[in-house]
Amino acid sequence: MKHTITMMLFALLVLAGCSGSQQSAQQAAAQAERPQLNPIEQATSGHIKMEGLFTVFQDTTSGSTKMMITEDQIGKEFIYWGHTVDGVPQVGHFRGNYRDNKVFSIQRYFDRIEFVVENTRFHFDEDNPLSRAADANISRAVLFSAKIDTEHEGQMLINSDPLFLTEALHQVKPSPFPGLPPGAMLTLGNLSRDKTKFRSINSYPMNTAVQVEYVYDNPAPLNRGGMHVTDARSITIVYQHTFIEMPDNNFVPRRDDARVGYFSQQVNDQTALGVTPWADVINRWHLEPKDPEAEISEPVEPITWWIENTTPHELRPIIKEATLEWNRAFEAAGFRNAIAVKVQPDTADWDAGDIRYNVLRWTSSPTPPFGGYGPSFTNPRTGQILGADIMLEYVFLRNAANNERLFSENVIDYFLDMGLPGLKGDEHGHTHEHGVFCSAGHFIQMSNMFGFAALQALDFDDLDREQMVHEALVYLIMHELGHTFGLNHNMAASFMLDPDQVHDRSLTEQMGLSGSVMDYPAINVAHDRSQQGQFYTTTTGPYDIWAIEYGYSRGLDDPEAEEARLNAILERSTEPELIFGNDADDMRSPGKAIDPRIMIGAMSNDPIAYSETRVQLVHDMLDNLLDRYSVENESYQALFNAFMSSMGQINTAMGVTARFIGGVYIDRGFVGQPGAGEPYTPVSRADQKRAMELLGSRLFAPDAFYESHEVYNHLMRQRRGFSNPFAGEDPRIHDLVLNMQRNTLAHIMHPNTTRRITDTRLYGNEYSLVEMMDDLTNAIFQADLRTNVNTFRQNLQVLYVTNLAAALANERNQYDNFTQTAALHSLQRIKTMMNNRSRGNAETRAHTAHILRIVDDALEG
């Protein structure tokens, strides 16, 4: 029995072994038939594959990524473009903010892959032996290095999480400003490795785009930001990194020239021998004619703009109208229908982050950093513009002030500065390239706020208001489009028509209210509705047409003939309507720049006369404001806005006027150029005196501002919760007036201005510093030497004497000897005036004693 059982067990084991052998053989056969995975495929098993310029794999479980580099990409150059998808303006990030544009190459170092940023700022003639030392003392930046995890047949796989989920490619978190006390600004905390993650990854044949949510943690923030910051302990910045194939086409770079305003790629020619060894090239699109033989041809590929589906429907026709208006300028350059406009369907599966689309975008942010913004990105090697967007903020159309500024202690400055940064001086709380930053939308919004007030007070009707908004929107869009075509600001363009011509609609609709849409001009409002012309320019002006001709007209194959052709275009720069000056030339801040024609907030070729009419317009409005803005069951907030924006217009007009004192006209014409004048011509003595007289009568005089007015005690902001200022909500009329006077004096008495007044006497200035200071002293003191001094004048006189004392003391060593001499002379004159003045009432006597105390302290110091 035992033997039988043993034999049966043995048989079962044999059968099982045979069965197992058969199964193993079958499995081996099946394995042989199944395709073998290569190392790359094995390493990316369980990943989503996104093929394109760079192939990216994302793990479906953890979300981590791997990036494939191919052998033919080693040593090759690509373009990097980075922009903010969404952010917090207080830390320098906002939707659509273009932040980085550079050339990088991918290098291999043994078993590692490196991303290296190339320096594109220098040029070497390849035929010059010096080109062999082209890398001498020029540092390339190795931004990222990663070990090759897997390699197979010319394909290399790296872990790309550290490339994208850190700040390796771009510094997202801004550097702290030195000297600021803790808590002075909202700051980002430390980058969270756990919370930072991919939002989207898209790869196309010509570009790869990766969006990342960068999360910054700060457990105990000292500054918690505004309403738009949900919780300052955790702030998210959504940023997109885009890698772009280097263009391989027949695009020909075009040289930059100081007489016309294009954004450019600045390149030093290290092998040139001239005094300006620059090989700068302008930024422009690649337009090619369909018919090269035709004088005017449609382009092979137009510059196509898409109106984003976030755009309000009623605005879309206006946006299209404004965009297509630029075709007028391009036709003069030889291209018909160079610009095309389409509307993004509501069902579109692409967004504005896709570089294949140039998009006109709309948002409505709680604290918008702009009203309009038109950036572009380029090939830094050539200046070819590769793509652009325009960001438009709905706040631009709203007749409302910035909520957070409205209840702040500096609400007065907000209105006086027209909502713009940098008007108080040379330093402000952010860094940027001023040529790229655009505040036109803010400027127009504040101008419109005044425009609404003026139309309400001067019996204009709803059609006029609609016309103003329509023209403002057309102008803003055309302005931002100009930036995307490569044009920078032209802050001199308003200096074209005389003060009467600017109200001739039949003229301005044809040639423009300004020479260019790239200016920040004053809103054009007439006293009389029957005389009203355009509020804003709505067509390309002579400068725009000429600038586009230079940038986009078809070049010649022969280099010498092409240079002659470009010079022929540039020789026209001396024509009056082609006057040009960009942000570096404008005089918006006290002491900045020298040419008073290059100034924001100006209008006409006689800005002094236009400024006088603007101040008179505001005075005429004031008597009607309370009546027109007293609406049943509404607060006085609209009245407050109307009054403050009107005061902002006086501030701007007086600032425009003050720039003529010590001003110098610039002519950038080249030697021998037809129509070119002297490079520097001081403003005539007559115009400097005229400017001083206007300031004396409209800003400094005892009756320049109402000592009492019914509107003053109605200037109440509508309370919101606990948002009233700490110092109180009462309207500070004296502070308002004093700030306007301070702003103007800050320029006239700026060390740059006073130094220039003396220096320019060597080449034509006939208005000496002592004479200017005598006129200024007379304007501030003479009128009330025999009468009581009102409180506005008391404030002004104390301010002026304090400024003189500071100039004489010269503790910061800013003022030259001539300014100190003039300050001493003025203080001595004022002392004599005070000692000889009539006694006046008790308030005037106390004020006189105060002035004498400041003067004596200054003279004894």
Automatic annotation (TrEMBL):
CDD domains xrefs: ZnMc_MMP_like_2 (cd04276)
PROSITE patterns: PROKAR_LIPOPROTEIN
Keywords from the UniProt entry: Signal
A matching Pfam family: DUF4953
Entry superkingdom: Bacteria
UniProt xrefs under Gene3D superfamilies: Collagenase (Catalytic Domain) (3.40.390.10)
GO MF term list: metallopeptidase activity
Ranges for domain EcxA zinc-binding: 465-784
Record bears the keyword Signal: yes
InterPro entries assigned to the protein according to its UniProt record, in alphabetical order: DUF5117, EcxA_zinc-bd, MetalloPept_cat_dom_sf, Zn_MMP-like_bac
Signal peptide: 1-24
Protein name: DUF5117 domain-containing protein
